[in-house]
Structure formats: C-alpha cells, structure tokens
Amino acid sequence: MTRTKQFKTFADQVELLRSRGMRIDDRARAEHLLAQLNYYRLSGYSYPMRRFTPGTGVARDEFVDGASFDLVVDLYEFDERLRHSVFIELDRVEMAIRTMLGYELGQIDPLIHLDTKRLSAHAGQPSKGSCTVHDAWLGKYKASLKASKEDFVNHHKKQYGGEMPIWAAVEIMDWGMLSHLYEMSPDIVRDRIADQCALRSPQLRSWLKSLNIVRNCAAHHARMFNRVYGFKPKLNNDQRLVPVAGVMNRAFGQLTLIQYLHCQLDLSPAKRLPDLLDTYPHNDIVPLTRTGAPEDWADLALWTHKR
C-alpha cells in the first residue's frame, strides 16, 4: 500500500494541474474555485481530458491538448444545472405517482397500506431477518409518521389516533417508500397505474427503481452527465424509445424516461430538459455524446414535444 497523499494548498493544486498540461489562464480564479468546489470533485470532470495508455485503458497523469480549467468548470456548471433540472422534473413525476397510488389503493381500502393481507403476495415475502417485506416497509412508514411535523399529520394523530388513509399517508412517503408500496400493491392497482403510463407493471416498477437512483444522485450532488448507471430499466415497444434503447444506462437514457413520463402523463410542456441540453458546453474533448445522447437527439420525438 502507498502512503496517503500529501496535503497541497490551493496554489499547489493549480501548479499540479498546470504541470500535467492543463491550461489555466487565471490563476487567482482557479484557486478561488478550488477553494469553493474541492479539487477531487472537479477532478471527476477533468478525468475525461486525461491521456490514456493505448490498449490498457489506464489514465495517465497528463492531459490531452486543449484541456483547460475553464472547460472543467463549464462541465461542472452544466452538471449542476442538470442536477437541479432533474430534481425539479422528477418532483412532478413523484407527485403523480403519489396521487395515483393514493387514489387507486384508497378505492380498495383506506387503510390498505397497513394490512399485509390486502396487499400483493410480495408484501408477505421474507425480508431481512425474520420480518416480511411489508414489515420492513411499515417500520420506515411509522418512523416517517412519527418524525413528521406536518399539520395534516398532527390532525390525524389527534382526531384518528394517527391512522391516516392512504391518500393522505402517501404525502409523507419518500420516493423509495412509494416505489416499494407500488411493488406491494395488488395487481389491479399496479396495472391501472402502469396503464396510465402506457407501460406494463414490471416495466413501471423498473422505471421507478431506476429513477430513484437518478434522483439520489441529484440530491447528493453526484456527477451525473457522464455517469454509467448500474440499473437498466425495462422498456416497452414505444417507437419513441427505440433510438435510445442502447443507452439506457447513460444519463441521456435516464433523462428520456423523465421526458416520456412528462409527455405521457401531461405533467408539463417537457421543455426544461431539452432546453438544458442546449446549454451543454460543446467541445471536441468531452462531447455531448458522453451523456449517451445521439448526434440527432434534438430531432427525436420525445425531445421535440411541445404542448
């Protein structure tokens, strides 16, 4: 094992980047941004600019011609806008799923989320330890209920002993809880919600899991634009998805899921993400195709949608 790397001042960090071939025109600005954003966060955006040893895929400690600190910052700022836009767009999707789950489950039983027997067989399957999938989920739900300071929660605690009907209960569930509740829901509920999305139930379940990962990346300030996602959602036969079927584990593929749901569920004019991609800092070293976007992305049906 090698020893821990030695501490470097912001001035040292600038010199290190310069020594490896990165162009830095404004030293003071570079030091200021490194002090704000952290060398190792920005290094993720400079990594694609490194030279690689042919045939090995090993990155060398030197940058390709044309690599610049300004481009690193431009890529970071684009990714920052991407995180913010994804969070906003997924908020609409989350609200729609909340509403549909509360409505469809509520038609069966207002307290169905508390009763394993009224849910699907999946709810009764073993989870960690000796508890069931529903037991594990219920523990998280009760913890959220206890921690909530919402007025409507206090009202139900005083008036109904804390037993909230499902159409109110969904409002204290995060994306992960909603996704698991969908998976535990009776077949008829899963199918009705999936139908509204023009998907089959297993497909929608995979989309919810996939987008939960994307949302977590956005929420935790992770680099998103050139990330390779480990989970691939299942697609339907919609021709609008065919051009991106091979890049569903890349950022553009995940963004296309969001575009699809906004268009299908009429959640918005679906312009925010296309407008965002138009702001990409186009360059020859780290082109937009690193997101998985094809050259003609702006001409694809889902990306030209206007209401």
Walk me through the structure.
By secondary structure, the protein is mostly helical. The protein has 2 domains: 10-67, no CATH class; 75-303, no CATH class. Helix content is 51%, strand content 3%. The protein has helices at residues 10-19, 27-37, 39-46, 69-108, 133-147, 151-160, 166-169, 175-184, 187-196, 201-219, 251-264, 272-277, and strands at residues 50-53, 58-63. It has a two-stranded antiparallel sheet with strand order 1-2. Helix 1 (10-19) packs across helix 2 (27-37) and helix 3 (39-46) packs across helix 4. The chain is elongated. The model has no long low-confidence stretch (mean pLDDT 93).
Task: Please sum up the structure shown.
The protein is mostly helical and 307 residues long.
Spatial strand sequence of the major β-sheet: 1-2
Structural class: mainly alpha
Report the helical percentage. 40-55%
Question: How would you characterize the largest beta sheet?
Answer: 2 strands, antiparallel
Q: What number of structural domains do the residues give?
A: 2
Contiguous low-pLDDT stretches (5 residues minimum) are none
Per-chain topology:
Layout: H1 10-19, H2 27-37, H3 39-46, E1 50-53, E2 58-63, H4 69-108, H5 133-147, H6 151-160, H7 166-169, H8 175-184, H9 187-196, H10 201-219, H11 251-264, H12 272-277
Antiparallel strand pairs: 1-2
Helix pairs in contact: 1-2, 3-4, 4-8, 4-10, 4-11, 5-8, 8-10
